[in-house]
Design goal:
3 helices, mainly alpha, 70 residues
Amino acid sequence: MKLPVIKHLTEFIEQNDVDYVLETIETLEALTEAPLKDEELDVIGELISNLYGAVEVDKLIKEGNPKKMP
């Protein structure tokens, strides 16, 4: 996971809605069933990982955890 990407996505979720990110995850997961090269699957996997990371961070923030950890 890339923390700067997760931070940016978390800000996107705050400004918009988590549903956009969840739909993007579903779309990327559907793409993994296409005949792709290993490198392409790796990129999609990394994107999915970062998107799930942002969803989890958003959930933690909504539960009352601070945005920045000490």
